[in-house]
Amino acid sequence: MDIISHGLYGSIAFGRENRRNFLLAFFFGIAPDLFSFGLYTIGTWTGFFDHPDWRSGQHPDPSQIPLFVHTLYNYTHSLVIFLIVFGLVSAIRKRPWWIMGGWGLHILVDIPTHSDAFFPTPFLWPISSYHVNGVSWGHPSVFFPNVVLIVILYTWFYFFKKRKRASLEREAS
């Protein structure tokens, strides 16, 4: 899935309470890709790393991507690592911090939307290298329904919130 969709799904699922929570849930939704690909992307923009070859219209050969990106991807896209971190944060806070759920949701959405061709999701890493050979998120059969679903969810949320606010205002008067 693309990074913006991940943020939007994280926000609608875990950040509806207020703007701060919305932004935090958005951050956790994009964090796995941000932390695995962010430094590399900045490095390609600044000339520190060579640009991978995207001209073919397909994903570049994964061997063109530096090893550190693959390593970080394993950590950030593992449900095992997510559950350990979520458990530690929950123990420290003495209650779950559900806003972090955007990270877990990111992994769950990536499992069926990444193929073997380019960064399949290592959701059981480091326990197992098992992954699903899904349909790439860029394929029209995934991409367009994804956009439609996001529009439906945010439209519903906007009107639901507006209706709830109007109901509270009526009760107050």
Describe what you observe in this structure:
The chain is mostly helical. It is 64% helix and 0% strand. It has six helices and no strands. Helix 4 runs antiparallel to helix 5. The longest helix has 33 residues. The protein is globular and about 65 Å long. The chain starts with a helix and ends with a helix.
Number of strands: 0
Largest sheet: none
Secondary-structure element pattern, one letter each: HHHHHH
Shape category: globular
The class by helix and strand makeup works out as: mainly alpha
Distance between the termini: 45 Å
Detail the poorly predicted runs: none
* Oligomer type: single chain
| Helical content class | 55-70%
Q: From the alpha-carbon coordinates, what is the Rg to the nearest angstrom?
A: 18 Å
**Fraction of residues in β-strands:** under 5%
The pLDDT mean sits at: 91
Task: Determine the number of helices (DSSP H or I, runs of at least 4 residues).
Answer: 6
